[in-house]
Design brief:
Length: about 290
């Protein structure tokens, strides 16, 4: 009887093996193939909406018109035209805003994560600060600092620094409690525990916050330009939208996204070099 059961069990397919085989078929498809396929599907839907006349071509130009405008804008950038100047100005605003947000966010994150004062007094203000409509502060910053680059940098910092604070504090709190007690029992000072245990444990969280800040810095700079004038890409987007040049708007948005993607990729590369022991998030398409 036991022999029959064993033979029947041996002939039955292993559900785990079947599941692994099904998953591996999709995993064997190269990432670039999946990206291209999904992009083509999106372009097909876009073209279908335009061809069916669901909306006016003035409001929603087709992929061909938009791609032509992207190529035309690339020519202006390559020859050092006014779009190139606007792109360089916006890039400076994003970089300085991101660096300021990273420094300020990390410092406040350590204060919140390591001190009673930060947890009791600073954190409630940060929670209240997070509920503020940050976009509404763009005219205030322009009134304080003028229409130049400084107000845009402040706006980028203003929007981007909070994720760094939260992730830094969460990373410091993620350190193993037993290991912390071991450090204390061995006579390690608070600074030694922070430097040798908590900060290395917090680095993956810190870089997660920096990646979010790299995207938010672009948003802050563009919002500052859109509402506060200046000569960056945000101002060009505003002018083009007023002229109903939506193909040009989409082209400018494309190059703005390249700025954010480039900064995100740099942070991801730095993460792989610094936090080499940490396995990257498989959903992270840039740093993976």
């Amino acid at each position: 009887m036991s022999t029959q059961v064993t033979e029947r069990d041996a002939s039955a397919p292993d559900p785990v093996a079947v599941y692994v085989e099904r998953v591996s078929l999709l995993d064997r498809v190269p990432r670039w193939v999946l990206l291209i396929a999904l992009g083509l599907v999106g372009l097909g839907i876009w073209q279908g909406i335009v061809s069916l006349g669901v909306t006016s071509r003035i409001l929603l130009p087709g992929p061909v018109e938009t791609f032509g405008q992207i190529i035309s804008t690339a020519g202006d950038i390559a020859t050092g035209g006014h779009v190139a100047e606007a792109l360089w100005l916006t890039t400076q605003e994003v970089l300085w805003g991101f660096l300021a947000a990273a420094a300020l966010g990390f410092a406040l994150g350590v204060v919140v994560g390591e001190t009673k004062f930060g947890q009791v007094a600073v954190m409630p203000y940060l929670v209240a600060f997070n509920a503020l409509p940050k976009v509404a502060f763009a005219p205030v910053f322009v009134a304080w600092l003028g229409f130049g680059i400084n107000s845009k940098i402040l706006m980028a910092t203003f929007i981007a620094f909070l994720p760094v604070i939260v992730d830094t504090a969460a990373g410091l709190a993620s350190a193993d409690k037993d290991t912390v007690m071991l450090f204390r029992s061995l006579g390690a000072s608070r600074w030694q525990t922070l430097r040798k245990l908590k900060l290395p444990a917090a680095l993956p969280f810190v870089f997660a916050g920096l990646k979010t800040a790299s995207v938010f810095a672009v948003v802050g700079a563009v919002v500052g330009e859109y509402l506060g004038g200046g000569g960056g890409l945000g101002e060009l987007v505003r002018l083009s939208s007023q002229q109903l040049r939506m193909d040009r708007v989409f082209a400018l948005i494309f190059y703005l996204s390249l700025v954010g993607l480039a900064l995100f990729a740099v942070v991801g590369l730095l993460e792989r070099k610094v936090v080499f022991w940490h396995r990257p998030d498989p959903t992270d398409s840039v740093s993976a």
